[in-house]
Amino acid sequence: MAIKLTSIDQFEQIITDNKYVFLLKHSETCPISANALDQFNKFLYERDMDGYYMIVQDDRELSDYIASKTGVKHETPQGFYFVEGEVIWHDSHDNVTVASLAKAEE
């Protein structure tokens, strides 16, 4: 299930408390982002696992913080895979798919 992030504190808590974290930065106005969100939800459903998403229009401060903390230039949609708080995979736009998310886990 995709759980909505709404604060920097929540983001920090999640990447501190969980060894593995999938995150999607989502734009509500972009059709490519809508497809990425569908792919993200399908990926999570197939694995019966939780992941996290944030809506860029609702929380630009959080989006900017993630870009700054990870050193990964902001794009939307943008998927991340964190292991022990470090980004080990990220991609954007049409490259956020069930297959690419699964490959990140390998």
From TrEMBL:
Q: Which Gene3D superfamilies match?
A: Glutaredoxin (3.40.30.10)
One Pfam entry name: BrxC
Q: What is this protein called?
A: Bacillithiol system protein YtxJ
> What's the source species for this entry?
Staphylococcus massiliensis S46
Native organism taxonomy: Bacteria, Bacillati, Bacillota, Bacilli, Bacillales
